[in-house]
Amino acid sequence: ETGVTQSPTHLIKTRGQQVTLRCSSQSGHNTVSWYQQALGQGPQFIFQYYREEENGRGNFPPRFSGLQFPNYSSELNVNALELDDSALYLCASSLAGGGSGNTIYFGEGSWLTVV
Amino acid sequence: GESVGLHLPTLSVQEGDNSIINCAYSNSASDYFIWYKQESGKGPQFIIDIRSNMDKRQGQRVTVLLNKTVKHLSLQIAATQPGDSAVYFCAEGGTGANNLFFGTGTRLTVIP
Question: How far is CA B19 from the centre of its chain?
Fold first, then answer.
């Protein structure tokens, strides 16, 4: 158990719809990152939130957006869903950005299927 | 750009043998490397990490080796057990970097 919890665990959406995924970070962690993992691939960085602001973004279009709340929990929102958005969405929490010694812990993910 | 690649997509070992999973990276500026284990239907589980000022680090039954000269990372698992069967990812990050770059993973299968 990493202490990173995500919801929902599975969901099915129709192309063009919008989805919100939620994440609670490990206690004491102030940084949340979101990753997309397509089947058979490694996770790809979407963006990171630190102190309620976006703090780095990967190569994802603007229809991927997020929020971080004062309690450090976070949401990932995806608008205008496309079939290729079907993937496992992973939330990771860390202290102060992670990297270089600050371990990054992942949740179990939210499986999104777009039909 | 950066790339994190793995030499072998699959690896099968006999229970009790040692396993070695290899990884190549291309960004010489990366200074932090992590190995994750991912079981089917679950999120990546942290195994061990190493910073670029080290060339070896040991954990419980696992050892990570870093060769900066050839940009190579390996994970050694001693006395491999059936519970070690999973996909293993190496990931790299840099000082102050916000994100990790992952490879596509190696599937380890332990044969009882």
Answer: 11
> Any idea which residue has 């994440």 for tokens?
A23
A8-46 residue pLDDT tens: 999 999 999 999 999 999 888 899 999 999 988 899 999
Structural contact between residues B76 and B19, judged by C-beta atoms closer than 8 angstroms: yes
- Asked if the C-beta of B61 comes within 8 angstroms of chain A's C-beta atoms, the answer is no
Strands (E), B1-112: 4-5, 10-14, 19-25, 32-38, 45-51, 56-58, 62-67, 72-77, 86-93, 101-102, 106-111
A99 with B98: Cβ contact below 8 A: yes
Which positions in chain B touch A45 (Cβ < 8 Å)? 98-101
Q: What is the DSSP string of A10-47?
A: EEEE-TT--EEEEEEPPTT--EEEEEEE-TTS--EEEE
Counting residues of chain B whose pLDDT is more than 90, the rounded percentage is 71
Helix, strand, or coil here: B109? strand
- Residues from chain B that touch A103, judged by Cβ atoms under 8 A, are 34, 46, 49
